[in-house]
DNA sequence: AAGAATTTCAACCGCCAGCTC
DNA sequence: TGAGCTGGCGGTTGAAATTCT
């Protein structure tokens, strides 16, 4: 839409001022309003006054009635939006404080693009505001070749992931059969709400439990998209509302699962939209696996957070089967055939992966200590390619679009492939956060997976610790947001 | 000073889930 | 049970404002 300042009685009017049926349709959810043409574009103060007056008298909600009763030529949606984003009395105006910025970053690390949920944890701020803030900052950082998340956030998410992993491992091994027969394995979304600034950010660990089964099914099986396995091009809001998706555990119980993982698209320097690697890689991708064994370091369904092989297994194992797969599961119980197929690059079946993961669970338990030891690398060391290497599993393979070790890690590394001070031919390790290093060679591989047109000029030198660690993340140092 | 480039942000759009009838 | 309505969400757009050259 293009706006022109048309000094009509109302003030600024959009060019298409809209009486177009399509606009009405969009606004009213498909049904045309009985009343005349609906106005679009910027709100005037007169309109604001009408809306405020109406809400004061009648309260929020029933937004379509606003038009009918107040004479506003605005659709209900528009009224709701205007109220929520600008007229609400409890809105906090002005720039985000540093504390809020920190909060947003951490919330985004936990939630991804769940602006509404983030807004609910930032009193007085709207989802739109947060979304705008995030997008502009991200763009800025992307242009500057800087990582999206502060290393401490990454570290925090790693730690939380570790905790989650431990808990999940516990659950996987200790779920009482009676419990599994019920629907009690749901984790209420409320758990993740209202973790305000004062309380820190501890709860939301996007794990596979959070991944809508449909996403897996629609994209995971037979998907030809590298890294797209858990990152379907479906509408994010759809995923968000898939908490009713049922996830039977291996005992046949059906559980709800939290949605969480989120889509995040970014635009590279060539304005080429690419799907950001999602939290899980597709270990079955032929190219991936064939070309690079190191990219197989995690078990199938291994999600984003570093050594989270366990996380995936633990969460996924009891939950992440779509109901439609239950029959399949029953009819085709796991067997050795399944196992071998799981390891086949050609096999992109979800179920097999789940079963595989369950098997991996035991062994990975034993490996966790090794993982931990492998992640502490003294500067100058080179991280080995061991599947147990936390960093590589977490940062290299899995691109979570929403989390420090997923999206940020992956996106950071895929978007900001370092060049300065290093040879592109030479595997380069870099300590991206205390005790954690990654192979940049592998990063390059991830990067080029999306067309290889990454902005070489738009890259930071990851070999410089200050590039990642020396920055004031909120733009109060050398680098501005 | 002027034009270009970039940033900001309000508003729109399409989709979806829940509710009601 | 299904259609229609409503509200909510996340992504996108584009005018205005700001910064850069």
TrEMBL record:
Cytoplasm keyword on record: no
Transcription found in the keyword field: yes
Top-rank taxon, per record: Eukaryota
Domain HTH myb-type: 38-87, 88-142
Keywords per UniProt: Activator, DNA-binding, Nucleus, Repeat, Transcription, Transcription regulation
Descriptive protein name: Transcription factor GAMYB
Sequence ranges assigned to domain Myb-like in this UniProt record: 35-87, 88-138
A GO cellular component annotation in the UniProt record: pollen tube
Pfam family, one: Myb_DNA-binding
Molecular-function GO term, any one: DNA binding
Primary localisation category: nucleus
Residue ranges, annotated region (Disordered): 1-33
Compartments, record wording: Nucleus
GO BP field: pollen sperm cell differentiation; regulation of pollen tube growth
Organism listed in the record: Liquidambar formosana
């Amino acid at each position: 839409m293009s706006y022109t300042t048309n000094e009509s009685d109302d003030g600024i009017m959009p060019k298409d001022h809209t009486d177009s049926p399509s606009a009405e349709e969009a606004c009213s959810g498909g049904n045309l309003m009985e009343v005349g043409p609906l106005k679009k574009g910027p709100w005037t103060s007169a309109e604001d006054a009408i809306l405020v007056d109406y809400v004061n008298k009648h309260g929020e909600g029933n937004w379509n009635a606003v038009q009918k009763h107040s004479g506003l030529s605005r659709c209900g949606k528009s009224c709701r939006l205007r109220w929520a984003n600008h007229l609400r009395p409890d809105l906090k105006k002005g720039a985000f404080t540093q504390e809020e910025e920190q909060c947003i970053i951490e919330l985004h690390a936990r939630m991804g693009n769940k602006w509404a949920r983030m807004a609910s944890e930032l009193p007085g701020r709207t989802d739109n505001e947060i979304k705008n803030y995030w997008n502009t900052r991200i763009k800025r950082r992307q242009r500057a070749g800087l990582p999206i998340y502060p290393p401490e956030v990454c570290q925090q998410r790693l730690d939380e992931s570790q905790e989650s992993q431990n808990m999940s491992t516990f659950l996987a091994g200790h779920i009482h059969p009676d419990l599994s027969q019920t629907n009690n394995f749901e984790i209420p979304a409320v758990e993740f709400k209202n973790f305000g600034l004062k309380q820190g950010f501890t709860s939301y660990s996007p794990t596979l439990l959070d991944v809508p089964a449909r996403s897996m099914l629609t994209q995971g099986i037979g998907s030809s998209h590298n890294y797209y396995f858990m990152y379907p091009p479906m509408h994010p809001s759809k995923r968000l509302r898939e908490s009713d998706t049922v996830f039977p555990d291996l005992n046949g119980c059906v559980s709800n699962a939290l949605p969480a993982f989120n889509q995040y698209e970014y635009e590279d320097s060539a304005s080429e939209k690419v799907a950001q690697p999602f939290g899980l890689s597709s270990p079955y991708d032929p190219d991936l696996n064939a070309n690079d064994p190191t990219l197989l370091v995690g078990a199938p369904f291994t999600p984003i957070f570093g050594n989270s092989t366990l996380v995936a297994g633990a969460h996924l194992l009891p939950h992440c089967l779509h109901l439609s797969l239950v029959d399949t599961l029953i009819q085709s119980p796991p067997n050795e055939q399944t196992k071998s197929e799981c390891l086949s690059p050609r096999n992109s079946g979800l179920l097999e992966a789940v079963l595989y993961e369950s098997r991996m669970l035991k062994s990975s338990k034993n490996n966790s200590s090794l993982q931990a030891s492998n992640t502490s690398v003294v500067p100058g060391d080179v991280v080995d390619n061991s599947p147990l290497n936390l960093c590589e599993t977490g940062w290299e393979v899995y691109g979570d679009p929403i989390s420090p070790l997923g999206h940020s890690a992956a996106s950071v590394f895929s978007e900001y492939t370092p060049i300065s001070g290093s040879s592109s031919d030479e595997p380069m390790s870099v300590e991206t956060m205390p005790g954690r290093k990654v192979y940049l060679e592998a990063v390059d591989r991830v990067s080029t997976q999306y067309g290889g047109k990454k902005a070489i000029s738009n890259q930071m030198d990851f070999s410089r610790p200050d590039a990642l660690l020396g920055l004031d993340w909120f733009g109060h140092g050398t680098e501005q947001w």
